[in-house]
Amino acid sequence: MAPAFIEFNRRLRWADADAAGRLHFPRIFEIIEEAESELLRGIEWPMDVRRKHYDFPRVHVECRFLRMLALDAPFRLRLTVGKLGRSSIRYDYQVFDAGEELAIEGTMTVVMLQNGKPVEIPQALRAALGGETSETGE
């Protein structure tokens, strides 16, 4: 089964730009979290279940800025489940500019916690995300 993904198109908003009219670098992480939330909603893993039973702290983020995104410029974001560990989910993301050139790429890894301790990703969520436990058991 192919891993779960989400794509959306939008424009760089005023709130996401710095004084020079470019993407303010920490804002990409908020946009990625928005995509993650929409992806989980789309696979019917609702927010109330997530908040009531689990926590998903970010344990690792990487980001490479390859091209500038200017204020009001259109872009396309793609967020894909890159790897499923025993208790972790690595998301891979790419942002493409209006010319479909890769502008930003990176990863974000979250760990599934219950009562403050890492827990195995439930089978229903694992199946919806489209993967199996990695060979290393991460």
Structure notes:
The chain is α+β, with helices and mostly antiparallel strands and 138 residues long. It has a single domain (5-129), classed as Thiol Ester Dehydrase, Chain A (Roll), CATH 3.10.129. 22% of the residues lie in helices and 36% in strands. The chain contains three helices and seven strands. A five-stranded antiparallel beta sheet has the order 1-3-4-5-2, with helices on one face. Strand 4 and strand 5 (102-111) form a beta hairpin. The two termini are 20 Å apart. Residues 132-138 have low confidence and may be disordered.
Provide the CATH architecture: Roll
Mean pLDDT: 90
- Class by SSE composition: alpha+beta
**Helix content percent band:** 10-25%
The number of distinct structural domains comes to: 1
Quaternary structure: single chain
For CATH, the homologous superfamily is named as Hotdog Thioesterase
CATH class: Alpha Beta
Strand content: 35-45%
Strand order of the largest sheet: 1-3-4-5-2
- SSE order, as H and E? EHHEEEEEEH
Question: What would the principal axes of the Cα set say about the shape?
Answer: elongated
Please outline the major beta sheet: 5 strands, antiparallel
Question: What's the helix count?
Answer: 3
Spatial separation of the terminal alpha carbons: 20 Å
CATH fold label: Thiol Ester Dehydrase, Chain A
pLDDT < 50 runs, ≥5 residues: 132-138
E-strand count? 7
